[in-house]
Each structure stands twice: as structure tokens, then as C-alpha cells.
Amino acid sequence: MQTPTKPATGLSLNESSGRDLLQASITDYIKFLRRQPAVCGSAEQQEALLKHISQGHDLIKLVASERLKITRQLDKQKHDWMELEKQMTSPIEEAMKPLKDAIEHYNREVLRIREHQLAEAAEQVDTNPTEQTNWLTPDVAVVAIPKGVQMKWSYEITDPNQVPNGYWIIDEAAIKGAIADGAREIPGVRIYQEAVTTFRR
User: Fold this and answer.
1) pTM greater than the 0.70 cutoff
2) Which residue pairs from 64-70 have beta carbons closer than 8 angstroms and sit at least 24 positions apart in sequence?
3) CA 179 to CA 194: how far, in whole Å?
4) Do the Cβ atoms of 3 and 29 come closer than 8 Å?
5) Mapped to the 3 state alphabet, what secondary structure does 166-199 carry?
6) Are 22 and 11 a contacting pair, CB within 8 Å?
7) What residues contact residue 143 under an 8 Å CB cut-off, 6+ apart?
8) Which long-range contacts link 130-135 to residues 24+ away (Cβ below 8 Å)?
9) What are phi and psi of 107, to 5 degrees?
């Protein structure tokens, strides 16, 4: 069982000729692997298969390395353009901020009044369930939601001890950290060893 030669130098993604050579190397490697029986019944066979896989990892690293030569420059250009955008738009945002703050303050005040009015209206319904007109307690007028404001449901934890178990998330990172530190028993958790094959990259 022969092992394919390592990728030759001169392979590249930047130039069409180098890219063609790189693609040809990948194609040859894949064809070679498909001719190999996927059988591992001895230490010798395992060693041979690991060598073949190592060749694949070399090709993967080569492609990634060539890609980085291109994308690093693109990333730098993107960063430069984003910095220019930030320089141009930051003064606009700063100039708009006092106006936005004023609107937010107004909206909060209107919503506070609206909440109070809704509470009064609900209380009035409770005291007059038959919907009979009571001239001493006229209907409460409720102000409209300010323009541009959308109401959405949110939440705030007021007492963690009362939150049902179904809303808690297991901290798997903490469990893994405890196991790495030597913990072998955690109530409700089975700690065991599993085989993990490491392929050299």
C-alpha cells in the first residue's frame, strides 16, 4: 500500500496555474484514497491509514494557508473601509443623540401616563362590572402609544428561587471544568471515559 507524495510547492490560489496544480493534487489524493480499502484490522494498517489521513490534513492546511494570503488582505481592506465609515458616521450619531434622548424621555413619560390610565380603566371596570353609566366616574381616556414605538414582551427575573426548573439551563461548561479539575461524581450526572481518536494535523 503506497502513500501519495506530499503536496509539491508552487501550489497556489492566487494564480490560475497554481490553482490548477492545487486542484490536480487534491483530485489525485482523493482518487488515491478511493482506491484504498477502508479496513483497519492491525497496528500496521492503522499506521498506514493514519499516514494517508496526515496527507489529507497537509492538503487542507495548504489550501487554508493559500486562502489566508488572499483573505487577510481583503480583511484589512474591509477593516479600513469600516474605520472610514465609522469616522464619517460617528459625528452624525453624536449630533442626533440629544434628539433621540429627548424622544426617549418623552416616550417613557407618555407610556408611564398610559400605564396609569389603563390601571384606572381596569379599576373602573372592576367597580362597575355591569357597564352602567356612572356620571360620577366617567370613562378614562387612554393616550395613544407614541409614534415610532412598538410594544414587545420582555421579562425581568424578580426571584430566581421561584423560576421553574424547565426554564433553567444546565451549565455544561461548569460540568466540563469540574471534570477537568478531577471531579468524578456529580449528582444527576454520569461521568465516564470515552475513546477519542486523534488524527495528527
Assistant:
1) no
2) 66/11, 66/12, 66/13, 66/14, 66/22, 67/13, 69/13, 69/14, 70/13, 70/14
3) 13
4) no
5) HHCCCCHHHHHHHHHCCCCCECCECCCCCCCCCC
6) yes
7) 110, 113, 114, 117
8) none
9) -60, -45
Query: What would the grid cell of residue 156 be?
Result: 425581568
What's at 66, amino acid-wise? E
Residue-wise pLDDT tens digits, 26-57 = 999 999 999 998 999 999 999 999 999 999 99
Q: What is the DSSP letter of 161?
A: G
Separation between Cα atoms, residue 49 and residue 3, nearest integer Å: 9
144 CB-near residues (< 8 Å, 6+ apart): 114
Given a contact cutoff of 8 angstroms between Cβ atoms, the answer to whether 171 and 29 are in contact is: no
**Quick one: cell of 197?**
481518536
Provide CB contacts within 8 A for 58, sequence distance 6+. Answer: 6, 7
Q: Using one digit for the tens of pLDDT, what is the confidence trace for 13-29? A: 777 888 899 999 999 99
